[in-house]
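User: Please go through the entry that follows and flag anything odd:
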Amino acid sequence: MDSTKNHSNQLTSYEADLSCLSTESTGQGNIVYLLIYDLSHGMAKHFSYLLLGKQIDAIYHTSIVYFGNEYFFGQEGIAVMPYYDGSNPMGRPTSQIVLGYSEIPFVLFQEYINTLNSTSFGVGTYDLFKHNCNNFSNEVAQFLTGNGIPPEIINLPSEVLSTNFGQILSRYQSPIENSINQSVTGNSFLSDQSNPLPPTLLDNPLNSNSNSNSFVNNTQSIGSSSISNNPFELLLSQRTTHLDSKDMSNPEGDNKKNPEATQEKEESAADQDSDERVEIKPKRKAPKYDDPPIVYADVDGVSAIKKILELVGDALSEEERRLMDDWTDYLKTEGEAWKIDDDHLSLISRLLNGEDGKFPPNVPLLTLEILQSAALKDDFVLALHGDRKNHRLMSYIYRIESLTLAEQEELGKLLCNFCGQPCSFDWLMYISEWNEPDGTPASNCRVTIRVAVHALLNDKLTTLQKVGVDLIFNLSLRELFEESATELATAILQYLHGNLEEDRVFLCLTALVRFMAISLNEVPALTQMLGPDINKFRGTSKRIDDLVEQINMRLATINAKGSDD
């Protein structure tokens, strides 16, 4: 099997600077790291051929570092601890990879982790060879960046199982897990003489100097009040403890404790059901403005699903009908976004694209109603991130100009509904790029701006223009990049040349004032250049007069500055 040294273009020595593992943010987003540990501390490389008949270079344990916290998976679910300069229960990483960059905010990431811990990576889901820490790291890496972890790490268990000794190990998987689980409560796995596995594989070179208290209060099991260790990571058995859940409200962690309060918490946890999850709700940064976003809440996604099933008849397979039932369950139930996975999104993509004319023409419209209804739910963004690799939904939205006018209008409503939830609003404005099939670079932010401008400036459907105004007003609630603010302001100035109703003028001028606060020079200059004369709106209403005054004050300031220059 290839070792990490064969991936020198990806893996860097741990002795390189690990101090960069922090919440550092770049223009591309927050850095996502993969930490790689050799739990055999070099023993696998020396003895694996004798035992397995083939060379393996390490027994890999991996974890993900994001926002300064290290996340990994074990028997009791997902564990998290603040990252402290490589000092953690697994020892020191042998290497690290910068997997990429992510714009996913901390609050959304914690929701995602809690969802995984309640479902596919919860208590009782661990499997030594098929569902271990490395599978967890791979899934989280794809969620955050769209990139997986090195395949030799994922493929190691199957390589071991392909050997005769690996088959023997698989028969004793349960005793291994039970023994390691007991080690957390003080029963050393190494002292279990009844375990029939060869001592070579069980020897722990750190056991002689391990300090079981060295990480008290530094590690939290999200799924339980204590961490049972990952049996694939033998050296974890002596070294892991747990963290007060309160500390995770701050992504940087806080180790100060009240001993009496901690004792009360542990006693209370002992009385709770073992399946209870620790709910992590970090504080979220307040939006820039207090205005509520405009959403289209009068939509019935469940009825849309029923109509689709009536229309498509036998065009859907039995499995696809089951997926549609899952969509119905999701829309009717709170907190079950985990049900919507890649298969569900693939079906939505098929319905949106009309299967080359095989579906009735209103099927895409009904499908957009399903998405509009889902977008009103605060956890739907978790499903959206499941499409981070393929960008099927955003690629469909990118083609807005080629869609029917009815689809374009429903698309605008969908984006407005995304603005109704903070996390999905963030998702709309992500700047991470991908390439469309024609090679054109795209990003969520570019697609969103494209839809807003196109909807506002179309000259065929006034209701689509109305949706465009609503979407641009929603976008003005956030701190945009100057380029985006300028592009949206340009569209507004062109739209304002028409004869508009008071509410349309109010929303447009409100957005224009806010875009002037972002682009201090260019938007005012465009206002004077492209027109219309803002004073033509005076007398429309008191609130519009106030906006006209603000715009004139800004223009006067720019003119005065130009005269001085």
The chain has 23 helices and ten strands. Residues 1-23, 176-219, 223-286 have pLDDT under 50 and may be disordered.
